[in-house]
């Protein structure tokens, strides 16, 4: 069994498109989350070596470490954040993402309201 410890709604958002990254970061900050960002899977892994998060929301296809590389690293952690993929790529299987440990997959373009409410449903389940 995997242990999820939800403490202070810290989220790490990972995407190589700055506009999408800013959009998601601003909305989560507005809702009271503590937000960190990274532009690649490799950068996110460096952040994770120094800090812990409750949630990771990651793009799938990025240079310098894709989302699956990041998820594999997260799976090696003793206390894991809830992991969600967001992607505009159709060359990946949602089932592959979920079986690798992601909680959900959001296709771009996504509805930010729906995405956040689904993530919060997972948070509430982890907290109960």
Write out the strand line-up for the largest beta sheet, numbering strands in chain order: 2-1-3-4-5
Q: H/E element string?
A: EHEHEHEHEH
Global Rg:
13 Å
Poorly predicted runs: none
Quaternary organisation of the protein chains? single chain
Strand content: 15-25%
**What structural class should be given to the helix and strand makeup?**
alpha/beta
- pLDDT averaged residue by residue: 89
Number of helical elements: 5
Distance between the termini: 16 Å
Query: Share of helix among residues?
Result: 40-55%
Structural key phrases:
alpha/beta; 128 residues; five-stranded parallel sheet; 41% helix; 5 helices
Q: How would you sum up this structure, described in words?
A:
The protein has 128 residues and is α/β, with parallel strands linked by helices. The protein is 41% helix and 20% strand. It is built from five helices and five strands; from the N terminus they run βαβαβαβαβα. The chain has helices at 18-30, 41-48, 67-75, 94-99, 112-127, and strands spanning 10-14, 34-38, 55-59, 82-87, 104-107. Strands 2-1-3-4-5 form a five-stranded parallel β-sheet, sandwiched between helices. The model has no long low-confidence stretch (mean pLDDT 89).
């Amino acid at each position: 069994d995997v242990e999820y410890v939800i403490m202070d709604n810290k989220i790490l958002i990972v995407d190589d498109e700055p506009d999408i990254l800013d959009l998601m970061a601003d909305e989560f900050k507005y809702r009271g989350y503590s937000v960190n960002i990274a532009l690649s899977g490799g950068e996110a892994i460096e952040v994770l070596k120094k800090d812990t998060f409750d949630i990771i929301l990651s793009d799938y296809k990025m240079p310098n470490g894709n989302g699956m590389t990041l998820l594999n690293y997260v799976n090696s952690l003793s206390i894991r954040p809830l992991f969600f993929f967001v992607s505009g790529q159709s060359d990946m299987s949602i089932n592959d993402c979920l079986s690798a440990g992601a909680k959900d997959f959001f296709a771009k373009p996504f509805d930010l309201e729906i995405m956040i409410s689904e993530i919060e449903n997972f948070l509430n389940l982890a907290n109960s």
